Amino acid sequence: MLVGVYHAIAAKLRTVSHSQTAEFLTGGRKLPIIPVCLSLLTTFISGIALLGLPAEIYQRGIGMGIGFFGGGVSFLISGAFFVPVFYKLQFISVYEYLEIRYDSVILRRIGSALFLVSTLFYMAVVMYAPSVALVGVTDVPLWPFILAVGAVSTVYTAIGGIKAVIWTDTLQAGFMYVGLGTLIIKGTMDAGGFWKVIEVAEKTGRLTESINKWDPSPFQYNSFWITTFGGILHWTCFYGLNQMALQRYCSMPSLRHARIVMGLTVPAFWIIGIMCCSIGIIMIGYFHGCDPVGTGEIENMDQMSILMAGRILAIVPGLPGLFLSSLFSSTLSTTSSGSNSMTAVIWEDFLKHKYNGMDESKKARLMKIITFIIGIASTLLAFACDYMGGIFNAATTTLGAAAGPLVGLFFLGIFSQKANKNGAFAGLTVSSILMLILSVSNNIEKPYSRYVLPLNQNASNPMCRIFNSTSSRHSEVHISSLKHHLDLHPHLLHRPDWHYGDPSTSLFARTSPFVYAAIGKWIS
């Protein structure tokens, strides 16, 4: 909040009347390299990665971690083909490209609308992530956590603009690295050491076995090919052809500076990805034989990271708060970036032609009002995420389905000279309809909800007694009730045979969520 106040005052003191809009949206195109790099990193590494990815690895193995290495390739693709085009054009809204390339205002506004809807959902999901985790380990209800994140990010983004977003993201990135690093070091020690963690992960099929899937069929949860190529195209949607990323690249002093930012972000991205995957592997060793969902200690897998952090870091009073700061930092960075970029798109693509003659101070005030409205809307939408089957599923199904068709328009325009607006309309329409069918089918039928690798429960495991005896919410649970609970809920243990989904569900539902972006781009 204070960073936002500082940049609001500083911008007012140093900007002349005609530059307030550019200052709010692009920082005068003079943003520093390292803060932009860290801001770019934290924009798309949110609570989904800190909570959802470790839970995903705990349930289904390290296979999804391969997608992070594909993310590094997406930076190379973006730096070679996309960033030079958009930097030369110097658009504040990247969707202006659609109007110029296809000679269609309607296509530009459709593209902008798709971005606004998908980003609003994305912000809602990442607000929901830390909130639902904390609800599982405290007696506080869900709504105060969501409101706290929504209010803080909305206020400092609205008053400080993109510079407040960039510098708060830099601070938050520091908390993320320190918090995750502390948890990894102490967690590895408590789980029996590095080699013990690896041994348990391998024994339960979550290392080499989870990667050793070579079937190219899209009608399965994942495989090496789905994770690799799907990951490249998925991250290209976000770090290459997304308003939140391109707005930062185009706000740099030169194209060379923009490419330096991309180059520095790759190792930072890989490091944070490895750290998130490491937490999932550590959880396998730490909870081996006493799955906390199976014992009823927590309600869903999304709460596991915060449960482990609370226990492991409890040796020093206040230290669990370090992980909480990492969690909330990742959330604030994403929501603030989303709000600022959505404001830029709404102004440039829908309002500028009507209010361009307005006084600069009034324009700046209007943008702040828009940012406040976006923050309120995303906060309200966050409450709906509780019905979408967990944060990882919510993110992959909604974001990939929305981004794929839109990014396909940019691919078509950049790589095909013969493409015209009629072909673009046809591709976008067919692709969007198919993506809607796939996403809705997956969320309704939930074909992979019971696909979990073996989770060996051992009711005589002394750790189960420790967990149950120290839990304020489940202190009455004993070994006998644990056995009874597992008898009633056998699906909590494992259903590895459902890698290809529930056979009673449709092929639309069983299409892997990790290829949505690839399918959407190809059809569009």
TrEMBL record:
Gene Ontology molecular function: any one: symporter activity
Record's subcellular location: Cell membrane
Superkingdom of the source species: Eukaryota
Keywords linked to the UniProt accession: Cell membrane, Ion transport, Membrane, Sodium, Sodium transport, Transmembrane, Transmembrane helix, Transport
Membrane in keyword set: yes
Entry's Gene Ontology cellular component terms: plasma membrane
A biological process term (GO) from this entry: sodium ion transport
Transmembrane segments: 33-53, 65-89, 110-130, 142-162, 174-195, 223-241, 261-286, 306-328, 366-384, 390-412, 424-441
InterPro entries linked: Na/Glc_symporter_sf (IPR038377), Na/solute_symporter (IPR001734), Sodium:Solute_Symporter_SSF (IPR051163)
Protein name: Sodium-coupled monocarboxylate transporter 1
Organism field: Panagrolaimus superbus
